[in-house]
Amino acid sequence: MARSHFTEVCGTEVSTTAVQIAKDKYGVEIVGDSLESIDFGDRRFDTVTLFHVLEHVHNPVDVVRKCHALLRDNGMLLIAVPNELESLRRRVRHALNRLGLRQIKYHGLLGIPKIVLDGSLAEIHLSHFTPAVVADLVQRNGFAVVENDLDPYYVKHGPAGLLHAAYYRLMRVLWKLTGKNFYDTIWLVARKQD
């Protein structure tokens, strides 16, 4: 995706397997380490993307600050994170669980995923965000919010695509009517300020 929009692409990944796949399959420059640990020297970027990254890191503030340092003046930061606290899906799941109609094995009282370290979950989210929290995070660290919206790229394809597209459109209508993001993901675009 990035190659079609940018002439120079560089990524980071902590998984050595994922680094090798990205290099072999896509020919993308990938640095095998966490973003906040890498020394890029004087190298600066026009755009930094954090697509479903912040929920997995130990200190999201450090990551956002590193992005600020890596961006050129007026550079753009694009963030997509799960909306696990305010989404309609989480609210319905929580209500069904409280009514005893559905037992949720890996979710706690508030419907927030539990951290399970025995390999039974595919991924662990160390942080949970709301649209307001993501906006505050970037604003406190040298960015101006350009867009805080539903994640437009989290649309499924195939047989489930039609149902998901209808769900996305419903969330879009609710967003327009209420100003609240009830969708499963948050999309935020921010510009570096000095």
From TrEMBL:
UniProt-listed InterPro entries: SAM-dependent_MTases_sf (IPR029063)
GO MF annotation terms: methyltransferase activity
GO biological process, one term: methylation
Entry keyword annotation includes Methyltransferase: yes
Gene3D superfamilies: Vaccinia Virus protein VP39
Keyword Glycoprotein carried by entry: no
Keywords: Methyltransferase, Transferase
Xref: SUPFAM superfamilies: S-adenosyl-L-methionine-dependent methyltransferases (SSF53335)
UniProt xrefs under PANTHER family: METHYLTRANSFERASE TYPE 11, TRANS-ACONITATE 2-METHYLTRANSFERASE-RELATED
Descriptive protein name: Methyltransferase type 11
